[in-house]
Amino acid sequence: MQTATDTELIEFNGWTMRVRPSTSKSPRLLLMIHGWTGDENSMWVFTRRLPNDFWIIAPRAPHRAEPQGFSRRPPQPSTFGRPSLEMLLPSAEGLIRLMDEYTASVKVDASRFDVIGFSQGAAMTNVLGLLYPQRVRRMGVLAGFVPSGLEEYIAKKSLMGKNVFVAHGTQDEMVPVDRARASIGLLEQAGATITYCEDEVGHKLSSNCLRALEAYLG
Question: Could you tell me the CATH superfamily of domain 4-217?
């Protein structure tokens, strides 16, 4: 098992990120995207039992969040709704550039990679999968949703042939489970098949769903 303490905190091209390199000759790349108010340390709880052939990258989001942490979208008025594609697109494009530039620097193939995200990071996972289906292999959507503005990409069946893992808690007050269920319908409209884990927890991943995520990635 590894934790954040087994990883490296690095600065790269203006990004702060925590990485766990792999000694495998052909590692699998995993991009982890934290949620609103999280940081580069937030996602490692999900990786404790993942195989060592994963080269894992967890970048800090570019914008400050209130009252703490970081966000994938610029600060918004407190009355503003959930993030849309328009708000998340600059960060999505930045993540693709980061993957290309960082992996080039360490000579790892980034033509395809896996992504897991939590909450706002799960929304970003959906954005990356729908906008860059040729790059994203597996998608783990944890306590998240499909942002508005992606209708064109859904209609184009951008996720055809992909299996997407979705996990949600029935007691989630931050992102109600009805929204997750509606998002599953949108992902299916985009051509995806869904592996779904639902449990009686709040805005977090249950131990049952963590095991299901590990099986999906493994």
Answer: Alpha/Beta hydrolase fold, catalytic domain (3.40.50.1820)
Token pair in block for residue 68: 């703490």
Note the pTM of the prediction, 2 decimals.
Answer: 0.94
Distances (CA, A) of 36 to 26, 30, 55, 68, 176: 32, 20, 24, 9, 16
Secondary structure class of 125 (helix, strand, coil)? helix
Per the CB < 8 A criterion, the answer to whether 160 and 181 are in contact is no
What are the distances in angstroms from CA 124 to CA 97, 106, 174, 199? 15, 25, 16, 22
Lowest mean pLDDT among 28-37, 80-89, 168-177: 80-89
- CA atoms of 205 and 35, how far apart (whole Å): 13
189-208 residue pLDDT tens: 999 999 999 999 999 999 99
Residue linked to tokens 């980061």: 98
Residues 6+ apart with CB under 8 A from 12: 98, 101, 102, 105
Element (H, E) at 57: strand 54-59
> CA-CA distance, 35 to 24, in Å (whole number)?
29
As a whole number, mean pLDDT of residues 92-119 equals 96
- Show contacts of 5-12: CB within 8 Å, 24+ apart: 7/44, 7/56, 7/58, 9/40, 12/98, 12/101, 12/102, 12/105
